[in-house]
Amino acid sequence: MAAASAIGVDPSLTTLLKLLDSSRTAGIKPEAIAELATIGVEAARSRGIDLDTE
Q1: Degrees, nearest 5: CA angle 17-18-23
Q2: HSE-CB of 19 using CA atoms within 13 angstroms
Q3: How far apart are CA 16 and CA 11, in angstroms?
Q4: How far apart are CA 13 and CA 27, in angstroms?
Q5: Do the beta carbons of residue 49 and residue 39 sit within 8 Å?
Q6: Helix axis angle, 14-25 relative to 30-46, nearest 10°?
Q7: CA angle centred on 10, ends 3 and 28, rounded to 5°
Q8: Residue-level pLDDT, tens digit, the chain, 54 residues
């Protein structure tokens, strides 16, 4: 994502940005993406993985 690097976005985040953009393009509602993210964080925490999301 050239635009991301042009504005100084951390390169490690470009994969996430690509996934979010693909999801949006495919018509997935932002609310559904947010719900999936929440479920993922909860699943990680239940397995003792700290994602440092706060």
Answers
A1: 100
A2: 9
A3: 10
A4: 21
A5: no
A6: 130
A7: 65
A8: 566 666 777 777 778 888 888 999 999 998 999 999 899 989 999 999 988 765
Give the pLDDT confidence score for residue 31 in this predicted structure: 93
Specify the residue for token string 């999936």.
36
CA distance 4 to 28: 22
> At a CB cut-off of 8 Å and minimum separation 6, what does 53 contact?
41
* CB-based contacts of 29-34 (< 8 A; 24+ apart in sequence): none
Please give the structure tokens belonging to residue 50: 């700290």
